[in-house]
Amino acid sequence: MTDQFEPVIIGFTCNWCSYRAADLAGTARVKYPPNVRLIRLMCSGRLDPTFVLKALSSGADGVMITGCHPGECHYLEQNYKALRRYLLLRRTLKQMGIEPERVKLVWASAAEGVHLAKEITTLVEEIRALGPLQWPTSITGNGKKAFLEGSSVKEAVA
Amino acid sequence: MSTNGKPKFAMYWGSSCGGCEIAVLNIHEKILDVDANFDVVFWPVAMDAKYKDVEAMEDGSILLTLFNGGIRTEENEHLAKLLRSKSKILVAFGSCAQEGGIPGLANFSNQRDLFTTVYDSPSTDNPEGIRPMYDYEAPEGTIHIPEFFHTLRPLDQVVDVDYYMPGCPPESHQIAAVIDLVIQVINGEAELPPKGAVIGAGVSTVCDECPRTRHEKHITSFTRIQSAVIDPDLCLLEQGILCNGPATRNGCGAVCPQAGAQCIGCYGPAADVADYGARMLTAVASVIDSQDPDEIESILDGIVDPAGSFYRFGLPHSMLQASKDAWKPSENGGE
Predict the structure, then answer these.
(1) Hey, which of A40, A86, A88, B312 has its CA 20 to 30 A from A141?
(2) Cis peptide before A100 (omega within 30 of 0)
(3) Which of A49, A77, A150 sits opposite B150 (nearest CB)?
């Protein structure tokens, strides 16, 4: 139990639906694993893909994006924009060598506390199975993220 | 080195193509101002000088160094550190020094695959399968060639950089304006911009300078520019061409869209853009005219190489910096 890999997951929630679903799960005492760190946005449409890249490059093993069900966006259609960005982001991440399954989009209304808790539990197990992402986070002299000194991999005459 | 009292100027190329040097020479008669106001002490493409000459200079004795090219080899890194210590003002000049540039696309691949492509592809004549060695014992002694690092880094991931000048290459009129500014500073007629500033460019996006007509965008399909008939006056993105104008810093004069080609993003991220690719991704995906996941996927199939298109110039300076394959060479049979 103690040496089991505990993934770190950043969850972006919408103020009008999924954040309240998480709240509801809490008040209804529905359990979900503590691996997810929820961040409230005003809408899934506010989710700049930069947030996902920053999370993954700063130590997160997975990201969960949540929003209102299609047709129910508080701001009319921003969740569709989130959907399109998510689908394109997955393709981009795949090319970077990151399993697309590490980023998941979930629709959850304010009444769906149980549903959200179930999705979180599933994602935690999926990412636990994938293993740690461990994106490099080395720091250079001027405080920026970079790779350390060159690789020691040497090529020899075949 | 001459001792004519003029401020000293240097220019160096790291991992780059030489286009930045040509762009500097392309400022025409302005190059005479460079000669009149500066003592050019080190510029391998234009004059003969040895690294040991630079090593012998006093720290901070060069007023202005334009460094183009990224840091791919031990030699690039050595010169970056050397010129940093010898220069008062170090400018990351051009896309490669600023954010990795085209050579930075190699950060999608690991070192071993890169070497295989170069030394072992079907078009390579290398029957003995010779690969370079960093150290070779010759009768005359050990020969050392600079190590090839497993990723490419922009200049500011290796040394402290004072200013950034984007472009592939920077536009000549922008170079001339920057040289004019430095000459004014020398004469006490102007002040330098704050450290870390992007110079020789605008603060908005390429779209801002683009004369093409724009409407609200509803994209139903993406196409490549070579397989489309292009309306000469309409926004390229509206025509389904993946144009990088919305995320790219202006200052070039939107020359590519005006010539009928899409912006490929050489001027780098616009002001306040943290990750260029994410900004492009947002701009492109948001205007897809569909609410159905399957239909969106089929529209996205029209973008054949999303990561390569969004990080054509800036992969090493992006948040992820390199693909997983590149930073874990051993996982793909490296060693």
Answers:
(1) B312
(2) no
(3) A150
Whole-angstrom distance, CA of residue A58 vs CA of residue A60: 6
Enter the pTM of the model.
0.91
B272 interface with A at CB cutoff 8 Å: no
Split into its structural domains, chain B has a count of 3
Tell me the CATH number for domain A9-130.
3.40.50
* Residue B30: DSSP 8-state: H
Query: Six-digit token pair at B88?
Result: 């008062």
Q: Are residues A156 and B322, on separate chains, in Cβ contact within 8 Å?
A: no
- Interface residue B196 vs chain A (CB under 8 A): no
- Those of residues 161-190 in B touching chain A at CB distance below 8 A are 161
Residues of the domain holding B94: 8-103+152-186
> How near does any CA of chain A get to the CA of B28, in Å?
36
Q: Which residue does chain A place closest to B316, by CA atoms? A: A146
Render pLDDT for A80-121 as a digit per residue (tens, 0 to 9).
Answer: 999 999 999 999 999 999 999 999 999 999 999 999 999 999
| Ranges of each domain in chain A | 9-130
Q: Which residue has the tokens 């004519």?
A: B4
B54 and B157 co-located in one domain: yes
Return d(Cα B278, Cα A63) in angstroms, integer: 15
